[in-house]
Amino acid sequence: MSEARIETEQDATRPLRDDIRFLGGVLGDTIRDHEGPEVFDLIERVRIEAFRVRREEVERSAVAEMLDGVDIAVALPLIRAFSYFVLLANLAEDIQRDRRRAVHEAAGEPPQGSSLAATYRRLDAAALDGAEVAGLLADALVSPVITAHPTETRRRTVFDVQTRITELMRLRQRYTETERERTAFELKIRRQVLTLWRTALIRLQRLRIQDEIAVGLRYYELTLFDVIPAINAEVRAALRSRWPGVELLPRPILRPGSWIGGDRDGNPYVTAEVVGTAAHQAASVAFGRYLRELVELEKSLSQSARLVPVTPEVAALAATGYPDPATHEDEPYRRALHGIRLRVAATARHALGVVPGETGEAPSADLSQGGAWSGASRIIGAAGPASSRSSSVASGAADVAAQPYPTPQAALDDLDAIDASLRASGDGLLADDRLAALRHAIETFGFHLQGLDMRQNSEVHEQVVAELLAWAGVHPDYPSLSEAARVDLLAAELRTRRPLLGPHARLSELATKEIGIVRAARNVVQTFGTEAVPNYIISMCTSVSDMLEAALLLKEGGLLDPGEPDGPPSCSVGIVPLFETIEDLGAGAATLAAALDVPVYRELVSAKGMRQEVMLGYSDSNKDGGYLAANWALYRAELDLIEVARKTGIRLRLFHGRGGTVGRGGGRSYDAILAQPAGAVQGSLRLTEQGEVIAAKYAEPGAAHRNLESLIAGTLESTLLDVEGLGADAEPSYELMDDLAARARAAYSRLVHETPGFVAYFRQSTPVAEVADLNIGSRPASRKPTNSVSDLRAIPWVMSWSQARVMLPGWYGTGSALEEWIGGDPDRLATLADLYRRWPFFRTVLSNLAQVLAKSDLDIAARYAELVDDAALREQIFGMIRDEHARTIRMHAAITGNNHLLADNPSLAESIHNRFPYLEPLNQMQVELLRRLRAGDDSELVKRGILLTMNGLATALRNSG
User: Fold this and answer.
1) pLDDT of the residue at 329
2) Residue 961: what pLDDT?
3) How many CB atoms lie within 10 A of CB 360?
4) Is 3 exposed, middle or buried (CB count within 10 Å of its CB: 0-12, 13-18, 19+)?
C-alpha cells in the first residue's frame, strides 16, 4: 500500500479516533471523579495493558494476571467501565459511518451498491419491458418483522441516554466554531455520560411480554413512522417514472410486521389477553400519530377562501368541521381537517374505547373475549408514545357525534380530496409536505400499524386438535391415525359448518388457552381488518396434517369460513408452514405439494389469489447440521419450492427466519437477498429482525433509511435482474454444493452430536447457564427442560459460543468440507475460486463466515475451556475446535485469495481493531467470575458481575445472538 493511500485512510478515520478519544476521556474523568483514583488507575492500567496485548508487546496472560483475585467491589466498576467504553465506541462508529457517507455523496462518487440509486442505474441499464416489470412486481411486498425473542441487552433507559449523546456529538461536529460553543457542548455531553454512569446497565427483572410489545413499538416514533412511508413514495415514483404507462406498486411495497404478542411457540406468557394488548397498543400508536399530524396540518393550511378557491369536495368536508360556523369561517382547509380529525378520533374511540391523547383514564379493549370490545380494565396511557401528548390531539365530546371511518381508505379518500384541491389551485408545494407524509402513512400503516403474526408449534396443534375431536365425538384417538387418515378427517372437518365446540365444552387448560388465543385474533381482525393478523405460522411443520390442524383451529376460532354448501372455503389468515431442521427443509417442497393436492387446502390458497407463504428457519437448521450444511439446505429448499410453485401455479412468498448472528442467518441483508436462487424472491419477501440488530438498524433515521432501502434494492434486483450468474453451470455447481454440505454436516455432527461429553463441555466452557439469567426476553431459554442441544433455543446456543469467542455456529465444519473436497487438487481449488467470484450465494457464505472468524479469538476461548473439569474431555474437544478453526481460515484464504479475513469489509476490520482492547478485559473478567461462581461463591455481586460482562460483550460484538 502506498504512503499516500495510507495517509488518505488515516485522514478518513481521524475524526473517528478523535471522537473515541474524546468520549473515552469524558468517561474516564467521570469514573475518576465518582469511583476514586484507585479504581480509575486500575482501569487505566488494564486498558493500557490490553492495548499492549493488541500490539503483541506482551502475552495474553498479562491482563488475566492483573484481574486475578480482584475484589468484586472493584471488579464491578471495572466491568461497567469497559462496557461503557464499548458502547461509546459504537456510537462514534455510527457517526463516522454517516460522516463518510456524506463525504462520499458530496464528492459526486457513484452510489453505493446496496442503495436504491445504484439499483435504479442497474434497472435502467437492463432496458426492461414495463408489462413484464408489472407482472413480476404484482402483489409486491417487503416486510421486516420484529420478533418476540430479542437479544437486545441494553435497558431502554441506557438506550435513551445513548441516543441523546449521539445527538449531541452530531451537533458538536457542526456547531463548534467558537470556544464558548465547544465548552457548552462538552458540558452537555459530560452530563449525559454522568447520567449513563449512574444508570444500572442490567435489569433486575426479566422482561415481560408487555414490555417487549412496548419496546417494539418505540421504533415507530423513533424512525419508522417517518422513514417507511417516505421510502414507499420514493420507490413508487421512481419506478412509475421509468415505466409511465404501467401502474406499478398500487400498494406500498414496504409494510412492517411483528411477532411480539402473537408468537407463543415455547412462550407460555402469550395469552389471549396479550394478543389483544399487542393489537390495541399498536393501533393506539397509529391513531395517536395521525391525530397529532392532523392538528399540525390544521395549523399550517390556513389558506383563506377570499384568496384561494377550493373544490366542491373540500367545501363539503369543511361543513363537517367546527360546529360553530364562525370558527375559521373563511379557512376551508382548517375546517375540513378539523372534520377529518373528528372522524379519526371517533374511529379511535370506536376501536380502542378511548382517543389517544385524551387526559384521564379510559377503558381499553379486551380482545380476548367474545365481543369486539367488551372489556374495560386498562388505561390508554400504557399504549406508548402516543399517549404522552396533551389533550390537544383529541376533540373532547365533539368526536362522539362524528361518524367513524369504516376503513383507512375512507380517511385516505378525504385527505386525497384536500390534496387534489391544493393542486388544483397551484398549491402543490404545500400538498407535497406534511399532507403527503400523512397520506402515505395511512396508506402504509392503516389503523392497525403492523401485521401481527400468530405462531405455535405443530406438536401443540396436534394435542389440541386431538382433544377437540375427542370432545366432539368425531374420533376418540386422533394421534393413533395414519397421516393419510388424519388428512382425510381434517379435510372433511374443514368442509362442514358445524363447530366442534359448544358453549359448555370442558377442555384442558392448554386447549382452552389455544382456542382463546385464536378467538382473540379473530376479534382483532373484526376490529382492525384482515391485515392486522395476516399469517398463522406452524413451527416444526413436517406434514400436511400439521398444516390442516392449524386450519382447523382457525375454523374453530372463527377465522376460517368453510363456505356455503356449494361454495369454496376462505380464510383471511395465511397458513404458513415453517420448515426448520435440515430434514424438514429437504422435505418441505414435497409437503407443500401434497398439501396443495388436498382440494380444500388448494381452495383456501386460491381464495387468497394463489399466494402461498413458506417460512424457512435458519437457527434450528444451523444448530442441527452446522453452518454450511444449513445454508445449502435452505438454498436447496428454495429451489425445490420454486419448482413446486411453477408446477402448481401458486405465487410463492418466502419468509426468512434470520437472526442477528451469522450462525442464525445474519449478515448483510442486501447480500443475503441477492444470494437467493433465481425465482425465490418474485417481488416479495419477509424476514425477521431480532435482538440488538433491531436497535442497530432502526433506532436512528439515517440507519433505518439505509437498511430499509437495501431490503427493497435487493428485492428489486433479485426479482428483475439475473443475479445468480451461474448460467449453464448451475446444476454442476448445485451438485458440488450437495457434496460440500454433506461433508460439512458430517464434520459438524462428529463434534456436536457424536462426541461423548460434548454437552457437558458446552455447558462448562460457556456461560450458557448464566445466559438464562440475563433478563433479555420473556421466553425461557429452552423449549423443554432437558440437556439436549436440540431442545436448547438458538439464541442461548449462539450467544454462549459468542461470549466465549468461539463463534462455533458460524463456521464449524466448513473448513473440513472444503479441504476434503479439494484434496490438494489445484483444479478443484480453482473451481471454488471461480464460484466465489461468480456466484453471490457462495461469495456471501464465505464472506459471512469470515466476519464470524474475525470476531472469534481462540486464545480467549482457551481460557474458557479451562473451566471444563475433565481435562481429557477439554483437550479432546477444544483440540477439535482449534484444528477446525485453523483449517477454515486456511481454506478461506486459499479460495478467496485474501490473506486477511476482512479484506472485503475494511470498515468491520477497523471496528474490530478499535474495540479489541475493550473486549479483552471483559472476557478475562467473565472467566474469572465464572470460576468463582462455580467454585461456590454464589454471591449476588459475583452473579451481577457475570451478567455485566455478558452485557458488555454483547454490546461490543454487536450481533451476538
Assistant:
1) 85
2) 45
3) 9
4) exposed
Name the amino acid, one letter, at 663.
Answer: G
Q: Which residues pair with 613 in a beta bridge?
A: 653
557 is written with which cell numbers?
A: 376460532
Q: Name, in order, each residue with C-beta under 8 angstroms of 5's C-beta and a sequence gap of 6 or more.
A: none
* Distance, CA of 459 to CA of 264 (rounded, Å): 13
Write the single-letter amino acid at 917. Answer: P
d(CA 657, CA 634): 11
Query: How long, in residues, is the chain?
Result: 961
3-class secondary-structure state, position 561: strand
Name residues whose C-beta falls within 8 Å of residue 340's C-beta, 6 or more positions apart in sequence.
Answer: 294, 317, 411, 414, 415
CA 759 to chain centre: 29
Q: Is 623 a known active-site residue?
A: yes
User: Given 149, 328, 697, 885, which residue is catalytic?
Assistant: 149
Q: Which three cell numbers stand for residue 666?
A: 445474519
pLDDT for the residue 181 = 85
CA 52 to centroid of chain Cα atoms = 38
Q: What is the pLDDT of residue 528?
A: 96
Q: Where are the beta strands (DSSP E) in 445-485?
A: 451-452, 454-457
Query: Residues 133, 138, 144, 149: what is their CA dihedral angle, to the nearest 10 degrees?
Result: -140
Contact 624, 790 (CB under 8 A): yes
Give the residue ranges of the chain where pLDDT is below 70: 1-11, 148-154, 176, 359-400, 659-667, 691-692, 772-787, 959-961
Catalytic residue, from 338, 461, 555, 623: name it.
623
- Sign (positive or negative) of CA dihedral 65, 66, 72, 75: negative
Supply 868's cell numbers.
471444563
Burial class from Cβ neighbours inside 10 Å (0-12, 13-18, 19+) for residue 74 reads middle
- The CA-atom distances, in angstroms, between 13 and each of 20, 81, 89, 236, 907 are 11, 24, 13, 37, 10
Rg, the chain, Cα only: 29
- Nearest Cα to 332, choosing from 321, 344, 341, 345? 321
Q: Mapped to the 3 state alphabet, what secondary structure does 164-219 carry?
A: HHHHHHHHHHHCCCCHHHHHHHHHHHHHHHHHHHCCCCCCCCCCCHHHHHHHHHHH
Contacts of 107 (CB under 8 A, 6+ apart): none
CA torsion through residues 124, 129, 131, 132, sign = negative
Predicted local distance difference test score (pLDDT) of residue 202: 79
Quote the pLDDT of residue 151: 47
